[in-house]
Amino acid sequence: xxxxxxxxxxxxxxxxxxxxxxxxxxxxxxxxxxxxxxxxxxxxxxxxxxxxxxxxxxxxxxxxxxxxxxxxxxxxxxxxxxxxxxxxxxxxxxxxxxxxxxxxxxxxxxxxxxxxxxxxxxxxxxxxxxxxxxxxxxxxxxxxxxxxxxxxxxxxxxxxxxxxxxxxxxxxxxxxxxxxxxxxxxxxxxxxxxxxxxxxxxxxxxxxxxxxxxxxxxxxxxxxxxxxxxxxxxxxxxxxxxxxxxxxxxxxxxxxxxxxxxxxxxxxxxxxxxxxxxxxxxxxxxxxxxxxxxxxxxxxxxxxxxxxxxxxxxxxxxxxxxxxxxxxxxxxxxxxxxxxxxxxxxxxxxxxxxxxxxxxxxxxxxxxxxxxxxxxxxxxxxxxxxxxxxxxxxxxxxxxxxxxxxxxxxxxxxxxxxxxxxxxxxxxxxx
Amino acid sequence: xxxxxxxxxxxxxxxxxxxxxxxxxxxxxxxxxxxxxxxxxxxxxxxxxxxxxxxxxxxxxxxxxxxxxxxxxxxxxxxxxxxxxxxxxxxxxxxxxxxxxxxxxxxxxxxxxxxxxxxxxxxxxxxxxxxxxxxxxxxxxxxxxxxxxxxxxxxxxxxxxxxxxxxxxxxxxxxxxxxxxxxxxxxxxxxxxxxxxxxxxxxxxxxxxxxxxxxxxxxxxxxxxxxxxxxxxxxxxxxxxxxxxxxxxxxxxxxxxxxxxxxxxxxxxxxxxxxxxxxxxxxxxxxxxxxxxxxxxxxxxxxxxxxxxxxxxxxxxxxxxxxxxxxxxxxxxxxxxxxxxxxxxxxxxxxxxxxxxxxxxxxxxxxxxxxxxxxxxxxxxxxxxxxxxxxxxxxxxxxxxxxxxxxxxxxxxxxxxxxxxxxxxxxxxxxxxxxxxxxxxxxxxxxxxxxxxxxxxxxxxxxxxxxxxxxxxxxxxxxxxxxxxxxxxxxxxxxxxxxxxxxxxxxxxxxxxxxxxxxxxxxxxxxxxxxxxxxxxxxxxxxxxxxxxxxxxxxxxxxxxxxxxxxxxxxxxxxxxxxxxxxxxxxxxxxxxxxxxxxxxxxxxxxxxxxxxxxx
Lengths: 431, 616
Fold this sequence. Notes:
The structure holds 2 protein chains of 2 kinds. By secondary structure, chain A is α/β, with parallel strands linked by helices. Chain A folds into 2 domains: 2-146 and 292-368, Rossmann fold; 149-288 and 372-392, Rossmann fold. Chain A has helices at residues 2-19, 24-29, 45-64, 84-97, 109-121, 152-163, 176-191, 212-222, 239-248, 265-268, 292-305, 314-333, 338-345; strands at 32-37, 73-78, 102-105, 126-128, 141-143, 167-173, 199-204, 228-233, 258-260, 280-283, 349-351, 357-359, 367-368, 371-375, 381-386, 391-392, 406-409, 416-420, 425-426. In chain A, strand 3 (102-105), helix 5 (109-121) and strand 4 form a beta-alpha-beta unit. In chain A, helix 3 runs parallel beside helix 12 (314-333), helix 4 (84-97) runs parallel beside helix 5 (109-121) and helix 12 (314-333) packs across helix 13. The longest helix of chain A has 20 residues, at 45-64. The relative contact order of chain A is 0.12. Mean pLDDT of chain A is 89; it is low at 1-27. Chain B has a domain at 321-615: ABC transporter involved in vitamin B12 uptake, BtuC. A 5-stranded antiparallel beta sheet of chain B has the order 4-3-2-1-5. In chain B, strands 6-7 form a two-stranded antiparallel ribbon. In chain B, strand 3 (172-174) and strand 4 (180-181) form a beta hairpin. In chain B, helix 1 crosses helix 23 (543-556), helix 12 (249-263) runs antiparallel to helix 13 and helix 20 (487-497) crosses helix 22 (509-531). The longest helix of chain B is centred in the middle third of the chain and has 50 residues, at 301-350. The interface between A and B is large, with 96 and 90 residues.
């Protein structure tokens, strides 16, 4: 109660300033606000806290460079506490009360789905930094993480070509991202001529810790005389016991390699890595990538966080790209006005940390290189494969019959996130 | 005891809610994954956006087996000579001979090849390794296995110096000269990178070169590796000569199996039948795959029949071992449940406190393990052993503080206790998050807790699970003894049964309450030590166990330690026997349904308290 009154008191001068908006002098003093919508408590704090720090670091750096449009940037941090409905409430608060010009936030797909109607209703901008299942494109959301064609499909192609894998285990946690990704992968594998009986799909509850029978089953599945691999969309905490059980049951990365889409440097820093060595992960960035941009980013991160042992990871790079793109678009537009920025950001190119360039596409996804890394004992990745050219993100998978004909294009004449190229109709809110 | 009746009554709806949640999220995930199909699903004319820059997928993705096979064929002629020399134990002579032999014909010499290893891509490295293996040089197997294990280093000099880091310790040797190299030089070298396909190729190369190694272990692993590749006639002939010389019975067995496997493809049916006869009793996976191929493809009906018969006998034995394996899985899942629940069997079962912070006490035990491990980094084994009493003390003290600070004021008010302890659990979680970090903490396992006890090729029991099973039973027995044989146990039972009478007899009930709660909390801490070896150590870990713990205690019968034991083992078994058929998600739902129905029929659990103690 007292807290909110205190907030209101603070806001009155803010409102007065907003009324005086337009006068040059007022503008110079008035900071540009960006919202940071990452869980700082609850189950997702483990992954999201780092992203909050990343945005704060980027903001501090931009301010050191003289701010944006001659104004300082201010990060408004809120804590949605790993509670999905709270994500929507906090978004509303950021947009209506704090009047932020852009929001950087969300990790899980369900939190993004809960925020989506709010940013559309209040016409905000959300930068979403995590790899996800695709099948979505909102006018108000920019997806700086990987779509399935920038992570899952290339990973499977790598295993087919380099390892000659013929049998596939699709193991995932039981929620939207693994289920959609596995549906896409299953369709893709069948397109490639993999037989039904050579695909095993397994789902486990969140935080599953007793992997004995499932690993035994995977082992049996892999012992049919054909090279076998596991495509893992197992989420978060369930990974440690999973890899431990693999190691204990004597399945090495050479027998049955596991390629994971949710295991990065940050997750590895909380694990005993010995059972994971040699297993794979597909991402668009690894901390071990040897480029001057990355070295500078890591140095900056260590200086900001004050801890030499902290790692960087893929979603951090996505925020790095997203923030820089937004800054560039605002500079290009000369204003932070949402509609102008949404138009201006398309085609904006900024350097990524792996030595290439990321471009914002008309479907609000970006171009990314795909990297495959092998886990090393020190919790870092050895890059064993990298695409030569960045891969453009595809919002609607071409491998699912439902979405094959759907494209997202937020430029005229289509201006639609869900456009059917066959019937030439825009389904609007159909995701 | 009103709280027990309350929980028995509440657990039903609670479980039902949990069940609904699990089922709903399951159904929701499924529904969500099946995105609504927009109309007009017609084959796409093109797939423009999925072109990745990996090499195009070949129509029939074939593994790149050429190095393996070509090596076998190419280098074979030289191998027996080198091998025999090794077996004779006179290494130096062989080395000179081989070097002399190889110097003239082979274009690049061995040392140049070794120096080339750090250069180029993985495929270049594979080519160099293949040439190296073909040289027959006695140094090569060591170098290649070091490379496969990531122990081969290169210095920054030009040309680079190639070093082998010792498998243990910090020392190492020079790959070319073989002389020992001080640790300082070793730490200056960078690892020559390898990836899994290369590692596999290297292992195959090493296998062929070590079939005749002096160490029987090495010979055995070489043969196991050969089993997976194809064996050509030269190699087969060489294996025949090995059969005459092999002394070790286990290696002999493997040797015969490998030979027989290769002969499954022999030209005459007689040879093939003989091979099937040899393979009859083997449980090795490759044997089963080989026999299956014979059953499916062999031209001769007699061979097919013999193979099918052999396969049947193997299959029935495998079934038996799988059942044993499942039994073990069930026991081990039960032992984890027992560990998690046994502390609660004291605090809730005996004292009647609905302790929602029980999971956090487990977490505190796990964090203690991590903390001790970081205090004494080198000594994994002793830190784990040390963590057991430490976790007991730390969690116990936290428990006593909870009891004295909050719970003692709430006896007889179960709903308030529930809310208060739930609040404490949230406070403890966030405290750990703020104090250490929201990230998980890595807890390493000592060697004796990793790997598995291999009974035979089909049945392997993981050591960590065996130890935890034993540990859980030890804790259970110890607790049983404390409750039945010590004066503290007597007082605890007295206070639980009739508080005013106990007090009248001079028992300091408040003190007994605190100690009992501390005992239960301490045991939860010990459970945390064990669980840190199985799962994550993080602020949320306690939440994963709280529902399961209550389930076990209520199912077993509140206030009865044996009930907890039987309940834990029963639920563990049930889950593990359901899982292979129903999948993990459905198994969990089915177990929840079972418990709800069970509590409806018998609200007091499997072994309810009887007599006057029951409604004290």
